[in-house]
Design a protein that fits this description.
The protein is of the alpha+beta class and about 70 residues long. Helices cover about 30% and strands about 10% of the residues. The chain is built from 2 helices and 2 strands. A two-stranded parallel sheet has the order 1-2. The protein is extended. The model has no long low-confidence stretch (mean pLDDT about 90).
Amino acid sequence: MVVTREITMRGAFRFDHEFDDALSLLASGLAVDPVISHTRPLARAVEAFDLAGDRSMAAKVLLDLGGE
């Protein structure tokens, strides 16, 4: 049916236990500042995503949900 109807299928990968592990590491004081290259306020989300997509400019870009 996929072939005859010319349906395009895309797979998706989801994380499961990794989030619990990451939160535990953060709660224990793991320093993440060294990998954060940029922070942008939510109002500049489009810029943040553009920046995050440019690996020559950024490593990890965070959205500051409390900023203006």
